[in-house]
Specification:
- Keywords: Membrane, Transmembrane, Transmembrane helix.
- It is a single chain.
- With 234 residues, the protein is α/β, with parallel strands linked by helices.
- Among the domains are: 67 residues, Trypsin Inhibitor V, Chain A (2-Layer Sandwich); 74 residues, no CATH class.
- The chain is built from 4 helices and 10 strands; from the N terminus they run ααβαβββββαββββ.
- The longest helix is centred in the N-terminal third of the chain and has 28 residues.
- It is rod-shaped, with a radius of gyration of 60 Å.
- The N terminus is likely disordered.
Length: 234
C-alpha cells in the first residue's frame, strides 16, 4: 500500500530530434565523401592529359638531359719528360783536358819537380820521408790519377832539404819574380811593401855570400828602376 503523502516526480520525457553529435558525424562524413569524390575526379581528368610526366624520362627536354649528363672529365696532360743534364766534360772547369799524373821514377826529385812544372802544375815539396835520399816517395794525388793544368801536386821526398841555387833578382820585374825565378828553384818570395816595379833589395843576396835550401824564404823589396840598394834592412 503506497503512502498517500509520498511525492513522486516523473522523469522528463526524452527530447525528440537528432543530437548534436550525430549532426557532427554526418557533416564529417559528407566532407570526406566530397573530398574523395573531388580527388577521384581530378585523377580521372589527369589520366587523359597528354602532357608528359615531369618525372618521366620521355618528358625531359634535350637541354635538361644535357645538363643532367655528367661532364666528361678532362684528359690529364702528359707530364713533360725530364731533360737529361749534360755530363760535365773532363777538365771543363778551366784547367784544360785531363791527363794521368806521371810517375816520379828513381831520378832525383828535382827532375820530377821540373817535369810537373812543364805540365803547368803547381808543385809543393815536403822533405823528411824515409827512403833513398833525394827520391820521391809518394805524391798527392797519386801517380796515374787524372789531373789537369792549374792544380797543385804535393810530392814527398826522402831525406833533408838540400841546398839550391840562390838567384840574383835585383832589377828583375817583381810581377814575374815568383813564377820565373824563385819558385823555379824551390824558394818562396816574401814581399816587403808593394809588388810593383822591380826588385831593389834582396835578402839573402848571393853576391854577398848568401845561400839557400829548398823551401827557404827570400825577402825582396820592389821599387822604381834605378833604386837598387842591395839587401833589405831587417
Amino acid at each position: 500500500m503506497s503512502d498517500p503523502w509520498d511525492t513522486r516526480v516523473e522523469p522528463a520525457p526524452p527530447k525528440q530530434g537528432i543530437s548534436p553529435g550525430m549532426i557532427a558525424a554526418i557533416a564529417v562524413s559528407v566532407l570526406v565523401l566530397s573530398i574523395a569524390g573531388a580527388t577521384g575526379g581530378w585523377l580521372l581528368a589527369g589520366s587523359d592529359d597528354p602532357s608528359p610526366n615531369a618525372s618521366g624520362t620521355q618528358g625531359t627536354s634535350p637541354s635538361a638531359q644535357a645538363s643532367l649528363s655528367p661532364s666528361p672529365s678532362p684528359s690529364p696532360s702528359a707530364a713533360p719528360s725530364p731533360t737529361a743534364a749534360a755530363s760535365p766534360t773532363p777538365g771543363s772547369s778551366g784547367g784544360g783536358a785531363n791527363f794521368a799524373l806521371p810517375a816520379p821514377g828513381t831520378d832525383p826529385f828535382q827532375n820530377y819537380f821540373q817535369q810537373l812544372r812543364a805540365l803547368k802544375l803547381g808543385v809543393e815539396v815536403y822533405f823528411g820521408e824515409q827512403g833513398q835520399e833525394g827520391q820521391v816517395v809518394r805524391s798527392v794525388p797519386e801517380a796515374g790519377k787524372d789531373v789537369h793544368a792549374g792544380i797543385t801536386v804535393k810530392i814527398y821526398v826522402a831525406g833533408a832539404a838540400p841546398t839550391t841555387t840562390l838567384p840574383y833578382v835585383i832589377n828583375r820585374t817583381c810581377r814575374d819574380l815568383t813564377k820565373n825565378y824563385l819558385t823555379a828553384v824551390g824558394l818562396r818570395a816574401v814581399y816587403i811593401g808593394l809588388q810593383a816595379g822591380v826588385v831593389v833589395q834582396q835578402n839573402p843576396d848571393p853576391t854577398q855570400g848568401g845561400t839557400a835550401r829548398w823551401n827557404d824564404k827570400v825577402e825582396v823589396r820592389c821599387g822604381p828602376v834605378g833604386q837598387a840598394t842591395g839587401s833589405p834592412s831587417p
